[in-house]
Design goal:
The protein has about 90 residues and is mainly α. The protein has helices at about 10-65, 70-80.
Length: about 90
């Protein structure tokens, strides 16, 4: 049987609950911070990938424009890109 000295007083329970709540809040804040950093890293990698893709396509486009479009492509393009105005 516990002695009165060894049992917790209600104030002790409240103090422990407050300490646990504070620690839990700190852990949640740390997790949110890490998650936001991860999102920032992924965003940066995605933007780098999109920039690289855009540069690749722009270079390909410029190369094609420098060579000039072939007659076959010009015929296909003009046949399929006509706009009819009513």
């Amino acid at each position: 049987m516990p002695t009165p000295e060894s049992s917790f007083a209600p104030q002790d329970n409240i103090a422990l609950e407050n300490e646990v709540s504070e620690r839990e809040a700190c852990l949640i804040a740390e997790a949110e911070e890490r998650f936001m950093k991860l999102i920032e890293i992924r965003e940066a990698k995605f933007m780098d990938m999109m920039d690289a893709r855009e540069k690749k396509h722009r270079a390909l486009f410029n190369e094609c424009m420098a060579k000039g479009m072939s007659n076959k492509y010009k015929a296909f393009h003009s046949k399929h890109s006509k706009v009819t105005i009513l």
